């Protein structure tokens, strides 16, 4: 079972200003439609940029529906030993449905 965070849990943690590292693994054209902030690192670029990330911070991986971010989580966990990873369950689509109805969907 992958470590996950629900959109509502993420909203609460962001509202509490917890020091989270948000990594969105979608493509730039998807990011342009909507994003939760953080850093855009498309999944195909993650292996090149993994060393630039802070291993000590809790990292939330984000994509459209949660599948690519799950792949990113496994990669960072297994190949780079990241200990504090969370997958946004349902991705930005779930965020729009569960947290912010005004958030763009595609």
Instruction: Determine the N-to-C terminus distance.
Output: 28 Å
Major sheet: 5 strands, parallel
Count of DSSP strands: 5
Major sheet: arrangement of strands: 1-5-4-2-3
What quaternary form is this?
single chain
Share in helix: 25-40%
Please provide the ordered H/E string of secondary-structure elements: EHEHEHEHEH
Ranges where pLDDT stays below 50 over 5 or more residues in a row are: none
Into how many domains do the coordinates divide? 1
User: Structural class per helix/strand content?
Assistant: alpha/beta
**Given this structure, which CATH class is correct?**
Alpha Beta
CA radius of gyration: 13 Å
InterPro entries: GlpE_sulfurtransferase, Rhodanese-like_dom, Rhodanese-like_dom_sf
Protein name: Rhodanese
Pfam families: Rhodanese
Protein traits:
alpha/beta, 17% strand, 106 residues, 39% helix, globular, 5-stranded parallel sheet, Oxidized Rhodanese, domain 1, 5 helices
Give an overview of the whole structure.
The chain is an alpha/beta fold. Helix content is 39%, strand content 17%. It has five helices and five strands, in the order βαβαβαβαβα. A five-stranded parallel β-sheet has the order 1-5-4-2-3. The longest helix has 14 residues, at 67-80. The chain is globular, with a radius of gyration of 13 Å. The protein starts with a strand and ends in an 8-residue tail after the last helix. Residues 16-104 form the Rhodanese domain. It comes from Rufibacter immobilis. This is Rhodanese.
């Amino acid at each position: 079972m992958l470590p996950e965070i629900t959109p509502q849990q993420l909203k609460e943690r962001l509202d509490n200003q917890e020091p989270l590292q948000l990594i969105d693994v979608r493509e730039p054209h998807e990011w342009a439609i909507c994003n939760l902030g953080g850093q855009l690192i498309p999944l195909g670029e993650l292996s090149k940029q993994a060393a630039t990330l802070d291993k000590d911070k809790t990292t939330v991986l984000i994509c459209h529906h949660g599948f690519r971010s799950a792949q990113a989580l496994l990669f960072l966990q297994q190949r780079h030993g990241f200990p504090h990873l969370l997958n946004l369950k349902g991705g930005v689509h779930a965020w729009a449905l569960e947290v912010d109805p005004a958030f763009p969907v595609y």
